[in-house]
Amino acid sequence: MCAYQLRRWFSRCDTKSLDPLAGIQRAHVELYIRDLHDNGLHDSSINTMLHVSVGFFGFAHIVGPIAADPAV
Q1: Alpha-carbon distance values, 38 to 33, 35, 46, 56, 68 (Å)
Q2: Are 21 and 10 in contact (CB under 8 A)?
Q3: Domains in the chain: boundaries
């Protein structure tokens, strides 16, 4: 399940010409949330999707590829 959620994030970044890690700001995450909602996902599904993305950003911040976690 986590792989699907990360693929969805990566796909969105690809569609928007964003690097899925570098240069991501909180606004990008908020727009992703809005798009998930606009696509008919329930709040519980959006929450699940975000747990994976937030974990991805948190891990990347801890191990060093990004200076700050955009999902905080």
Answers
A1: 9, 5, 11, 23, 28
A2: no
A3: 2-63
Q: What are the backbone angles phi and psi of residue 67, rounded to the nearest 5°?
A: -80, -30
> At 64, phi and psi to the nearest 5?
115, -15
The per-residue pLDDT for range 14-48, each reduced to its tens digit, is 999 998 888 888 899 999 999 999 999 999 999 98
Return the percentage of the chain with pLDDT > 90, whole number: 42
With beta carbons less than 8 A apart as the criterion, state whether 20 and 8 touch.
no
- Taking the whole predicted model, whether its pTM rises above 0.85 is answered as no
> Helix axis angle, 26-38 relative to 2-15, nearest 10°?
110
Dist CA 20 CA 22 (whole Å): 6
Instruction: Report d(CA 20, CA 52) in Å as an integer.
Output: 13
